[in-house]
Design a protein that fits this description.
By secondary structure, this protein is α+β, with helices and mostly antiparallel strands. Helix content is about 45%, strand content about 25%. The protein has one domain. The radius of gyration is 22 Å and the shape is elongated.
Length: about 160
């Protein structure tokens, strides 16, 4: 009879490692969000969002939907800009970041943090964050004006 005990134990240990790696990836993404909020005076955060891809992007990435790290307005949660696509495999690492058609495989936390840092320091990323910080809905000027009281009637 085959002895599977060692293989089962190895699988259990591998699963524990994967859980630690997934927690590590979440910690990095949470730290990114906290620091983006701090850097933008609470106007812009960061999160992972599932996006429907354009035809060109779906050909490049090989699917119609993908996850992306996005900068998102805290005042208008539907307003966001993609920073980079992110692929987190079932094993957690290597995390793949796709930025400007470059695929970067991050084999561990230090490489993931370094790659994210490099992407955040790029001019297009800075522009995306600034665009969100400066976003004003078109109808906000009408909503921001106080109602006119010159012709208001007194309640009876």
């Amino acid at each position: 009879m085959a002895d599977f005990k060692e293989n089962i134990e190895r699988g259990l240990r591998a699963h524990q490692v994967t859980l630690r790696h997934r927690a590590e990836i979440s910690e990095v993404l949470n730290e990114l969000n906290e620091q983006m909020l701090a850097s933008t005076n609470g106007k812009v955060g960061a999160k992972v969002k599932d996006l429907r891809l354009s035809i060109v992007e779906s050909v490049e990435l090989g699917n119609e939907m993908s996850s992306a790290i996005v900068a998102v307005s805290t005042a208008y949660p539907d307003i966001f800009k993609r920073i980079a696509f992110i692929v987190i495999p079932p094993s957690a690492y290597p995390v793949t970041l796709v930025y400007n058609r470059d695929r970067i495989a991050c084999k561990d936390r230090p490489s993931f943090e370094a790659t994210l840092g490099s992407i955040l320091a790029q001019p297009p990323t800075g522009k995306a964050i600034l665009d969100i910080m400066e976003y004003v809905p078109q109808n906000v000027s009408r909503l921001a004006e106080p109602p006119s009281t010159t012709n208001a009637e007194e309640p009876s």
